[in-house]
């Protein structure tokens, strides 16, 4: 390890320690009962750089439920599969609403505001369910390729829990179907969506898996093209304006990185040309974003001068 890496590791350790008192500030997601059982004091950080170096502290190798972070991977798969026609069925505007809101969807005739709120992710799940003969398997193998390991699994407890508490997602999907914007059978589409949300991965695996978004669509470890430079730009743009839901404006204002959160407590932040930060701490704020995770990403971005608006 060179000095820079040792320094970064020390800095991350100090930042994680500085957050010890903040685990009690949020509450672990309990609308999916399986998530309510997670220890709120677990926390980790991983920073993966496009030059191949990865640093981690705390519980950075412990798998957690990736939840809405899966929306980023699903979106890339759908863009690759159906190209620009996707943008006739989903918009690219911030919603100004909670992640699972239904109210705007009727006003806007079943066209979701963006692909990373639930309605948009369900639309993306429809594309995947309709265009892959085995979409869940295709999703898992995409994740395994990106993570560089076969050992990526769906947490069946979380999946079952989501399935039995998924009425709001079902309502969003049926409403879109009533407007003719959904092709697949709703139960199949929901099964795909809950499967991708129930994948477990560690901070280290997530940070490394998303390096292509920091590198114009090319995985720097393998030189494999994962998406076009244009689509990498588009995903980063959507994450900048909508990835932190109704806190996206404040996050851009104070941090300045494309990012995506999940109700499992994970946050990924893309630093174009540099790498990916992933943090995990389960207690959430009222927007559904990890309290400690937001603090950590903000502190790392500040410490390393990573804002894209500099
Ligand atoms: O749709 C749901 O309820 C979850 N499976 C995913 C939601 C989520 O992670 C929202 N993000 N903060």
Give the percentage of residues in beta strands.
5-15%
The total strand number stands at 10
For the termini, the CA-CA separation is 29 Å
Main beta sheet, described?
A: 5 strands, antiparallel
**Which descriptor suits the 3D outline?**
globular
Total helix count? 12
H/E topology pattern: HEEEHHHHEHHHEHEEHHEEEH
Unique bound compounds: 6-diazenyl-5-OXO-L-norleucine
Strand order of the largest sheet: 2-1-10-9-8
What is the mean pLDDT? Answer: 96
Provide the helix percentage: 40-55%
Q: Structural class of the helices, strands and pairings?
A: alpha+beta
Low-confidence stretches: none
**Structural Rg:** 18 Å
Short description:
This protein is 44% helix and 12% strand.
Keywords, please?
310 residues, alpha+beta, five-stranded antiparallel sheet, three-stranded antiparallel sheet, 44% helix, 12% strand, globular, binds 6-diazenyl-5-OXO-L-norleucine
Written description of the protein model:
- The protein has 310 residues and is an alpha+beta fold.
- The chain contains 12 helices and 10 strands.
- It has a 5-stranded antiparallel sheet with strand order 2-1-10-9-8, sandwiched between helices. A 3-stranded antiparallel sheet has the order 3-5-4.
- Helix 2 runs antiparallel to helix 10, helix 4 crosses helix 7 and helix 5 crosses helix 9.
- The protein starts with a helix and ends in a 6-residue tail after the last helix.
- The chain binds 6-diazenyl-5-OXO-L-norleucine (DON).
- The site of 6-diazenyl-5-OXO-L-norleucine has 12 residues, from loops.
